[in-house]
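Okay, any thoughts on this one?
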Amino acid sequence: MSSTAFAAVLALVAGLGGAVQIGVQGRLGDRAGSIEAMATASLIGAAIAVVVLLLARQSLGGVVVAFGAPKWMLLGGAMSALIILAITVAGPRIGVVATTAVLIAAQFTLATVIDKYGWFGVDRIAISWTRVLGLVFLFAGAALTLRR
């Protein structure tokens, strides 16, 4: 399997996992508390990541390198906690589909801005009318999913 195919399959599986995560996190949040559920999910994710890292690299040295990187590069971990907390709170209140739709619409919008300005070292990609139209449709779809 090529690296592109592997990346696409991994993204597909992660998308499916995201829907499961929204469903189960809300239930865990109802049972243990939203912040407790966020912390539990983060700890389980961290434990799995350490096991995978040790199996693949036989070392934790790369983590030391990562913590030595510029601090803005560590935003991914903070954003993970924010996402986990948000889906834990939103999922039971607005549903799995609406939570996913709003999250994706917001994600695409900021991604468009990141592309436009080349933030975080990504290649700059201009904002076209088709991208803007796509974002409008995404938000319209997200708004429609909020209706029960």
DSSP finds six helices and no strands in the chain.
